[in-house]
Write a structure and sequence with these properties.
The complex is a heterodimer. By secondary structure, chain A is α/β, with parallel strands linked by helices. In chain A, about 40% of the residues lie in helices and about 25% in strands. Chain B has a single domain, classed as Mannitol-specific EII, Chain A (3-Layer(aba) Sandwich). Classes of the chains: A alpha/beta, B alpha/beta.
Chain lengths: ~90, ~150
């Protein structure tokens, strides 16, 4: 089982919506991923292996040497985009 | 429920804005007037956008201006503003922005339920058609109440 953190800057808006969509995709495809969400402040204490966020935040995080794999989503209601990026992560 | 926090006094149709910052100020104006957020909350949204880019543009033509609750979210609310002319926010994938959903989230157990409903609305093409064609805000609130039944 993988553990994913959906994070955005505030932790109350975009990340929550993204978490709702990610959970839908995870359930539909029975992906072995457990999903949590928080603001970016939650990342340092997060012990899972995947961080999911918006694409501009992902670019910023990628320079920070996180141990987690980072996925950036452009359109948070686009389930195809979420599906493709989660599949690519799982098949890696 | 969504209809509890989207009052028609928070909805504005075909607003003219000069640029993205102006659009956020105009979009959040009813929330300040009706004491859902403080003026500092609006400044914080703009400050974060300046320092970190257009993080609030979340899907095609839609911005969700919001900041962390502790910067002045007084009461849970969502204001809806449509722009007369769409505006570039600097988000390559989803520009230009035509619809702003200005969010004030007080920490509460109902927030997840509300956001789940909002996600469903953002996937609803009829809803956007209504936003394009509505003549007054009560058409929007009536529609939201109808789909909640």
């Amino acid at each position: 089982m993988h553990k994913a953190l959906v994070a955005c800057r505030a932790g109350v808006g975009s990340s929550l919506m993204l978490k709702i969509k990610v959970n839908e995709v995870v359930k539909e495809h029975k992906f072995p991923i457990q999903v949590e969400h928080s603001s970016l402040d939650g990342i340092p204490g997060f012990d899972g292996d995947l961080v999911i966020t918006l694409v501009d935040v992902a670019q910023e995080l990628s320079g920070k040497g996180l141990k987690q794999h980072i996925i950036g989503i452009k359109n948070i209601v686009d389930k195809n985009e979420i599906y493709e990026k989660l599949s690519a992560f799982l098949n890696n | 429920m969504l209809s509890d926090i989207i009052g028609k006094e928070l909805i504005q149709l075909n607003v003219r804005a000069k640029n993205w910052e102006d659009a956020i100020r105009r979009g959040t104006c009813p929330l300040v007037t009706h004491k859902k957020v403080t003026p500092e909350y609006v400044n914080k949204i703009i400050e974060i956008a300046h320092t970190t880019g257009p993080y609030i543009v979340i899907t095609k033509h839609v911005a969700l201006p919001h900041a962390p609750s502790e910067f002045g979210a007084l009461d849970s609310a969502i204001g809806i503003t449509t722009l007369e002319t769409p505006i570039e926010f600097g988000n390559e994938a989803n520009d230009p922005v035509k619809y702003l959903f200005c969010l004030s989230a007080k920490d509460s157990s109902s927030h997840l339920e509300v956001m789940t409903e909002l996600v469903q609305l953002l996937e609803n093409e009829d809803f956007f058609r209504l936003l394009d064609n509505a003549k007054n805000p009560s058409e929007i609130t009536d529609y939201i109440k109808t789909i909640e039944q």
